[in-house]
Design goal:
This protein is 22% helix and 29% strand. With 263 residues, the protein is α/β, with parallel strands linked by helices. The protein has a single domain, classed as Nitrilase/N-carbamoyl-D-aminoacid amidohydrolase (4-Layer Sandwich), CATH 3.60.110. Helix 1 runs parallel beside helix 3 and helix 4 runs parallel beside helix 5. The chain is globular and about 50 Å long. It starts with 5 loop residues before the first strand and ends in a 28-residue tail after the last strand.
């Protein structure tokens, strides 16, 4: 059966409270309820929504972050997220700090409309305060009713290889929970990532919801510090494998796969 081509995205914006899990979950549920009349297929939060991206707090430490990290199978908060996905019949990309095998990760989980967890992505490119986390070591995509979907978190978008690897695995839609810069340079970057990979990118930031298309256009955006949800329909039929993807010369790119030299 061919995947559905049209998907309705919902991108949450609003500023969560650092360290306040209860309040941030409550605000998330409020955002879901606001979006419900529009019947989104996929709803996306900004980066580490549950703890308000507490790692950026100057007083954050690994130990303190560990206190708000969620164990995947035992977290009451994540269980509530799963229940919301099932109750609303939608897919959720939800940002949080995870605790897995004794390590903490900057994570984004993807839950299906049946409430089942589809997968967890760990941020792979860490800088400055993110060094409190363990870096992810995979760039997976997951099957959905709309075909493969990939996730990259915040700074991951700075490296063109991140989006390209997801696209080469078939992701016509890349979800990008973030908390970092959201200026004109970011807009240019997101337009470029979508254009060079002939895909859609959904950028969810506390102050900006932004969607770019395979032609490199901004097809929807909303700037606000207030809680809200940008709703936009995208047609994945426009994400094709011709042009840039078809004309690649991977035999010339071997240097990209080499490990960086030691300092």
């Amino acid at each position: 059966m061919a995947p559905t081509q049209v998907v309705r995205l919902g991108l949450i914006h609003g500023i969560p409270q650092k360290w306040n899990l209860e309040e941030n979950l409550k605000t998330f549920v409020e955002a879901v309820q606001r979006a419900a009349p529009h019947s989104p297929d996929i709803l996306v939060t900004p980066e580490c929504w549950l703890d308000g991206y507490a790692a950026a707090d100057p007083e954050s430490t690994v130990e303190r972050l560990r206190s708000v990290a969620q164990q995947l199978d035992d977290s009451l908060f994540l269980r509530r997220v799963a229940n919301v996905a099932k109750e609303q019949g939608l897919h959720l990309c939800f940002g949080f700090t995870s605790l897995e095998n004794g390590k903490i990760y900057n994570a984004a989980g993807l839950w299906g409309a049946d409430g089942a967890r589809i997968g967890i992505y760990h941020k792979t490119h860490l800088q400055k305060h993110d060094l409190q986390y363990t870096p992810g070591d995979k760039l997976p995509v997951w099957q959905t009713p709309w075909g493969p979907v990939g996730i990259m978190i915040c700074a991951d978008r700075r490296w063109p290889e991140t989006a390209r690897v997801l696209r080469l695995q078939g992701a016509r839609l890349i979800l990008n929970p973030t908390y970092g810069f959201y200026n004109s340079l970011n807009e240019a970057m997101m337009r470029t990532r979508a254009f060079e990979n002939q895909c859609f990118i959904a950028f969810a930031h506390p102050r900006l919801s932004l969607v770019t298309d395979p032609a490199g256009h901004i097809i929807a955006q909303e700037r606000s510090d207030e809680l809200g949800v940008l709703i936009v329909d995208i047609d994945l039929e426009k994400a094709r494998d011709d042009n840039h993807l078809a004309d690649r010369r991977p035999e010339l790119y071997g240097l990209l796969a080499q490990l960086r030299s030691a300092d």
